[in-house]
Amino acid sequence: MKYIIAAAANTGPDKDQNQDSILLKRIENPSAEMVFGVLCDGMGGLSEGELASSTLVEAALQWIESREDILCADVADGSWLRDEWTKLLCVHNQYLLQYGRERGIRLGTTVVLMLIAYGQYYVMNVGDSRAYEICGSIRRLTRDHSLVERQVELGILDRREARTDSRRNILTQCIGACDQIYPDYAQGKVRPGAAYLLCSDGFYHKVEEEELYRMTRRELADEGRLNEHLWSVIQTSFRREVVLRRKEGDRVMEGKHPELDTYEIKEDDQLGSGGFSTVYRAWHKRLKKDVVIKRIFREMNGEVDVRADADNLKNLHHTYLPQVYDYIEADGESIIVMDYIPGKTLEKCMEDGMRMKQKDIIQWGIQ
Q: DSSP string covering 154-172, please?
């Protein structure tokens, strides 16, 4: 089985140094081709976060280079691989703990490792960096070690609430910050035509799973095109952070277009995402009222005449239609501002098993 591979990273708009570290290695032998990938997201300050992630990636590289002959024999029995990876992560966890204690600092890193070999995938993670399988749909292969994920498992939060919860960056374990770690491990059969993706939270917090599937589902026949496409997906995430960024402290929405300063987005105010846009609740400073900001996915701009639609809606005035206040183009993205109508979404009401009255359906239609 032949594989095409690509890796890319972006520092982000507010950082001088990238704390993510990546390893992507192709292993070839006469009987099979294998791919080994590692992604780490460091934390603990710029220099310490980069050290935590880069040293773990270096340890993983040393491990794979010392085990290539064994791997080429066969790894169908995942128990050996699970033990090897668990030992690798536990040893590095103690190394980072000792490093931090000697210097009076705290540092750590998430990690997700994946090996694809002999028609099987093998994956292990600690923290909230993820592995996905994309083939006909998108499926997460890992479980986040985070407070929010735990609350979802306990039924305290649903997935929709978890996506925008302000505590989603609080981890229950990571390498270098816990006395003991408990990695998760999974393995399965590689599906024909499938793509496997490793990513950190800085990426998937900006690009939701359904959107990621739409952006990556098409087949890419060579590594050059795959690299270009991967960069375009990352740039979409990067631009989204620049245009609709929450500023810590006063939490005012910032952007390159001066008209964006009219609106303030508070924490946890993403209302949803799907179709061709992400929707936020915001405060209109001049009108002194809540409004909805609808940010059109950049890749849809060529397929939908957003300005024409916005202009048409501006001229419509009806009891059952939200008023459109503004249309903004910022950094190549399209943003529509309209009335905010409080209440539950139709999807939420269906999930709750609510019986629907005609007046309620009209109200949901307005939303």
A: TTSS-HHHHHH-TTTT-BS
Nearest CA among 50, 56, 43, 115 for reference residue 89 = 56
Q: Which two tokens stand for residue 34?
A: 């294998």
φ, ψ of residue 283 to 5 degrees: the values are: -105, 125
Q: Which strands form 138-140's sheet, in the order they lie side by side? A: 138-140, 130-134, 195-199
Instruction: Tell me the CA distances in angstroms from 243 to 13, 45, 75, 330, one per residue in order.
Output: 10, 25, 46, 7
- Cβ distance 113 to 196 under 8 Å? no
The secondary structure of 35-102 as a DSSP string is: EEEEEEEEESSHHHHHHHHHHHHHHHHHHHHHHHHHHHH---SHHHHHHHHHHHHHHHHHHHHHHHHH
Could you give the 3-state DSSP secondary structure of residue 291? strand
What's the 3-state SS for 186-198? EEEECCCCCEEEE
- Give 180's contacts (C-beta < 8 A, 6+ positions apart): none
CB 339 within 8 A of CB 323: yes
Alpha-carbon torsion, ordered 218, 222, 225, 227, to 10 deg: 100
Mutual angle of helices 78-103 and 46-73, in 10-degree steps: 160
CA distance 200 to 206: 11
**Tens-digit pLDDT profile for the chain (367 aa)?**
678 887 776 655 455 556 789 999 998 877 778 999 999 999 866 458 889 999 999 999 999 999 887 776 666 678 889 999 999 999 999 999 999 999 988 899 999 999 998 889 999 999 999 999 988 888 999 999 999 999 999 999 888 888 778 788 889 999 998 999 999 999 999 998 888 999 888 777 666 777 677 666 655 555 666 666 666 666 655 544 444 443 333 333 334 444 556 777 754 567 776 556 778 888 887 777 888 888 776 655 554 566 666 666 666 665 556 777 777 776 566 788 888 877 766 666 667 776 767 776 676 565 5
Cβ-Cβ contacts under 8 Å for 232 (sequence gap 6 or more): 215
Q: Which residues contact 302 (CB under 8 A, 6 or more apart)?
A: none
Measured from the Cβ of residue 82, the count of other Cβ atoms closer than 10 Å reads 16
